[in-house]
Amino acid sequence: MPLPHPERTRHDHDVVIVGGGHNGLTAAAYLARAGRRVLLLERDDHLGGAAVSAQAFDGVDARLSRYSYLVSLLPQRIIDDLGLDIRLVRRRFSSYTPDPRDPSRGLLVDADATPEASVAAFAKVDAEADAAAWGSFYADTARLAERLFPTLTEPLPTRDEARALVGDDRAWSEFVERPLGEVIDARFASDLVRGVVATDGLIGTFTELDDPSLDANRCFLYHVIGGGTGDWDVPVGGMGAVTGELARAAREAGAELVTGAEVLSVDPSGQVVYLHDGGEHVATATTVLSNVAPAVLDRLLDTASDAAAASERFAEALADSAIAPAVQSPFVPDLRVGLPPVVRERLRHLAEPEGAQVKVNLLLTRLPRLRDTSVAPETAFAGTFHINELESQLATAYRTAARGEVPSPLPCEIYCHTLSDPSILAPELVGAGWQTLTVFGLHAPHRLVERLGNDALRERLKAEVLASLNSVLAEPIEDVIATDAAGRPCIEVKTTLDLEHALAMPGGNIFHGPLSWPWAEPGAPLTTPAERWGVATRHPRVLLCGSGAVRGGAVSGIGGHNAAMAVLEASGA
Q1: pTM of the model
Q2: Which of 131, 279, 411, 456 could form a disulfide with 442 if both were Cys (CB 3.0 to 4.6 A apart)?
């Protein structure tokens, strides 16, 4: 335990939450409503973490969902429990995918299409036989969603219990036990259709479809079970509206939400040291919930451990000396025997999570025209717009990035928020026909930063995103990009390192680390409430409440809900 610091202000609470993202706010709201004294600490000057709306372009009244942008895994149960006023818009068109080999044609997946119209849509890209396979495949994922999604806000089922819930040995084998690429290749013939299906297993995940690690399978599962349907909805008002409601619920319940509070260390005993308003503070609690990535929590715990060891060494030195030293060292030396600090730091980076995407926000004066004249831009961009995502292109892009090069063409997915919800734009921009585009580029792993440098990588990825867009458009995307007050194009590019700097996500990993299956594997301890809810760390008084928890990832609130349930169960509530 660190020695008392005379200049520290001390505060006592039942729960201290480190990080003010949506999961931390969810936990704060639940626990405060249950009568707990809750302190939430956020290093930034605003709450919300990655789920925020921001004016990205100077002098332009448009509040974009800067980082995360769609909602699928947020349970209605959390919305109802906390009384959240959140509106989500369901998109009629699932996706549009122009054929990279002939961009004058493309596959439009319309949720309202008749069976005949659906077959005709697939036939347009020479994939008529895949129309029936598509229906059968997504009927299987719908059953997975219906049976597994309700378990995400309950104590962890075991693997055997989850399999029994699914009740379909073939589907379990295909989606859980065999590499995702096998079922996709077995059930679909078209390279284009296979690619559209495969992308849900590659979002923010740098892997191959046939990798035996099954990383793609876990990513895919979370992308198809949200809400019990797998639909991805547009939040009215942007992502900031979601976290704004969570913050309101937490405050009204009595939680203390402090911004501009940089946490310096977390002690396993429940002590959190942080800076705020120029002073150093200590908050103590029965339980500490971590809404930061597990790798960040480890560093905070290491800091506390180093400080404790230094205090003990200092106390021992005082005990051995009759006279206190006149000058004390201004830093704590690293006395651990082993690797040099520079090598230890390098190994730490190699062991941390790796993100694998680039996020690009654009503001347009209008939607661009397509080479496929049979589909209106307002229809094509209304769902997920896939570009250069043939299965073969995804495989090539992975191999290119794995050897340290930027893929070209870059596989991209595009979303237009304003076609579903124009409220994020000022009325005059709506009237003028302006639109937003969000581009999510795949297979842009964090390792490219070290190879190219962040500034050079950012410019290269921007060029590749624009080139990928232009490959299927009838006019250059540059011709319809708006300009800000200084005349600069309204383009914002976020590399993995940009995410790490802005959001403290190690390696820019949007899931805070590798995704886990939403159940307990055989032999996993399920003795404590924290273990049963999938939020345990190696320290009983420190729990995970963010995306790094079991069943974490995406804007769901599930990590926060489950951590809160573990705290309440442990206290007998």
Answers
A1: 0.91
A2: 411
